[in-house]
């Protein structure tokens, strides 16, 4: 017996329904975003702070392994990013807008300003737009 054209529509509707549910279930949450943002900020901070001549001389004398020190702060950086972010949860996906930085850590050492828009969906997070403004204390070195 041949299937009617109405059966095909139900198959497509069921497949679309399963896809929608799968996207909603795999929409990354805040914890996922914190881990992702921590990784992103470790890379950015390592590049900015640990490069040759980036830190003031006194800091270079005290800090033996700058990349490891920055990496050890991954969780804290992720929490900072989450606290500095706004999440738009559309159910099937999320958009996170993050703006942080500009604070002075030490005289002459300011955290770079960082802005990012991150798209989360299907269990993945991806930065779709970002900008990083070098800190004045670091740019002059």
Description:
- With 141 residues, this protein is α+β, with helices and mostly antiparallel strands.
- The protein has one domain (27-139).
- The protein has 6 helices and 6 strands.
- The chain has helices spanning 5-25, 30-49, 57-62, 66-71, 74-83, 136-139, and strands at 85-89, 93-100, 104-106, 109-110, 113-121, 124-133.
- The strands form 2 sheets. A 4-stranded antiparallel beta sheet has the order 1-2-5-6. Strands 3-4 form a two-stranded antiparallel sheet.
- Strand 1 and strand 2 (93-100) form a beta hairpin.
- The longest helix has 21 residues, at 5-25.
- The mean pLDDT is 81.
Query: How many strand elements?
Result: 6
Order of helices and strands: HHHHHEEEEEEH
Largest sheet properties: 4 strands, antiparallel
Distance between the termini: 79 Å
Task: Please summarize what this structure is.
This protein has 6 helices and 6 strands. By secondary structure, it is an alpha+beta fold. The strands form 2 sheets. A 4-stranded antiparallel sheet has the order 1-2-5-6.
List keywords for this structure.
4-stranded antiparallel sheet, two-stranded antiparallel sheet, 141 residues, single chain, alpha+beta, 6 strands
Can you lay out the helices and strands and say which pair or pack?
Layout: H1 5-25, H2 30-49, H3 57-62, H4 66-71, H5 74-83, E1 85-89, E2 93-100, E3 104-106, E4 109-110, E5 113-121, E6 124-133, H6 136-139
Antiparallel strand pairs: 1-2, 2-5, 3-4, 5-6
Helix pairs in contact: 2-5
């Amino acid at each position: 017996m041949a299937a009617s054209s109405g059966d095909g529509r139900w198959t497509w509707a069921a497949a679309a329904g399963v896809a929608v549910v799968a996207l909603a279930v795999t929409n990354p949450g805040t914890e996922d975003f914190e881990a992702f943002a921590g990784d992103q900020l470790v890379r950015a901070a390592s590049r900015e702070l640990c490069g040759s001549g980036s830190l003031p001389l006194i800091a270079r004398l005290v800090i033996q392994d700058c990349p490891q020190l920055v990496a050890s702060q991954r969780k804290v950086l992720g929490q900072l990013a989450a606290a500095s972010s706004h999440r738009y949860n559309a159910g099937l996906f999320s958009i996170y807008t993050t703006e942080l930085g500009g604070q002075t850590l030490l005289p002459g050492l300011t955290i770079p300003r960082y802005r990012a828009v991150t798209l989360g969906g299907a269990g993945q997070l991806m930065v779709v737009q970002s900008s990083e403004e070098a800190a004045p204390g670091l740019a002059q070195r």
